[in-house]
Amino acid sequence: MNDLLLEATDISKAFGGLKALSNVNVSQRRGELLGMIGPNGSGKSTFVNVISGTLKPDSGEILLDGANIARRPQHVVARAGIARTFQAVKIFDNLTVLENVLAGALGHSSMGTKEVDEAREALARVGLTADLEQRAGALGLYDRRRLEFASRLISRPKLLMLDEPVGGLNPEEIRAMIGLIQSLREECGIFIIEHTMKVITSLADRVVVLVNGKKLVDDSPQTVLRHREVIDIYLGTGDA
Ligand code: ADP
Ligand code: MG
Q1: What is the pLDDT of residues 19-74, one digit of tens each?
Q2: Number of Cβ within a 10 Å radius of residue 228
Q3: d(Cα 178, Cα 191) in Å, to the nearest integer?
Q4: Do 201 and 37 contact (CB within 8 A), yes or no?
Q5: How far away, in angstroms, is 100 Cα from ligand 2 center?
Q6: CA distance 103 to 87
Q7: 71 — alpha (psi -120 to 50), left (phi > 0) or beta?
Q8: What's the CATH number for 32-55+73-237?
C-alpha cells in the first residue's frame, strides 16, 4: 500500500505575471498532520485552491491516495476525497445549522433520516450543540467554523485541508480549536495552513514553509523554528 496520502509534484501557478507557486513539491504521509506556514501572499491559499481543484495548476501532478487528481473539476476532486475549509468561513447564512451540514453531503439529493442522522453525527463530532433549526447566520465565529468542518466531515474525506482555522478566534477558542483538530486526526488526514506558530507547533508533525511561492523548508516544527530565514521572517513581521 502507498504510504503517501498526498503527493503534489512540481506545482506551479501564475496570475498574470505573478508567480503565486513555483515548482512546489509537497507530500503528506498517511496519519501525518501537515502544517504550512509563510508570510501573507506567499501562496498558501493558492496551494489549497490548486490541490482541492478550485484552481487549475499551470503545471504539476497531484496524487491523492495514488490517484491522479490534477486539473480535475472540483466536484471530482471532492468525490476523490479532498475537503477544504476557507480562510473566510463559507457557510449558508440563510440555511439552518442542519441544512448546512446536509448541503455538504456529496451525492445526496434527498434528505432522508439516514442523511439527517449523519449530519447530526458530524455536528456531534465537532461539538456543535447549537439548535439545529437555528439559522447559521446567527452563530458566532467559532461555531461557524465548526459548522463548516461538520459540513465537510459528512462527506468522509480522506484529506481535510484547513485554511487558517484559528484566525479571529480568542485564546480560549483557539485552545478548543486545537483540541478539535487533534481529535479529527482519527478520521482523516489533516493539512493546516496557519499563521500562529503556537498552533503549528502544538499540532503539526511536519511543517512546510512557503515564501514568495517557493518552498523554503520542509521539516519538523522544532527544526523549522530554528531555521534562520524562518526566524527572520517571523520576527520581522511580529507574527511569532
Ligand atoms: P497566502 O494565502 O499565503 O496569503 P495567497 O495564495 O492568497 O497567499 O496569494 C498568493 C499571491 O497570489 C498573492 O500575491 C495574491 O494577491 C495572489 N492571488 C491569489 N489568488 C489570486 C487570484 N485569484 N487572482 C489573482 N491573484 C491572486
Ligand atoms: Mg491565505
Answers
A1: 999 999 999 999 999 999 999 999 999 999 999 999 999 999 999 999 999 999 99
A2: 7
A3: 13
A4: no
A5: 24
A6: 19
A7: left
A8: 3.40.50.300
Which residues does ligand 1 sit against, CB inside 6 Å?
15, 18, 20, 38, 40-46
What is the rounded distance in angstroms from the CA atom of residue 163 to the CA atom of residue 112? 31
Q: Which of 45, 86, 191, 192 to mutate to test the pocket of ligand 1 (most atoms within 8 A of CB)?
A: 45
Give distance in angstroms: CA of 192 to centre of ligand 2. 11
First-to-final CA distance of the chain? 39
| Per-domain boundaries in the chain | 32-55+73-237
Neighbours of 226 (CB within 10 A): 11
Q: What is the pLDDT of residue 236?
A: 64
Question: How far is the centre of ligand 1, averaged over its atoms, from the C-alpha of 71 (Å)?
Answer: 19
Q: For the chain, what is the HEC assignment?
A: CCCEEEEEEEEEEEECCEEEEEEEEEEEECCCEEEEECCCCCCHHHHHHHHCCCCCCCEEEEEECCEECCCCCHHHHHHHCEEECCCCCCCCCCCEHHHHHHHCCCCCCCCCHHHHHHHHHHHHHCCCCCCCCCEHHHCCHHHHHHHHHHHHHCCCCCEEEEECCCCCCCHHHHHHHHHHHHHHCCCCEEEEECCCHHHHHHHCCEEEEEECCEEEEEECHHHHHCCHHHHHHHHHHCCC
Is the pTM higher than 0.90? The answer reads yes
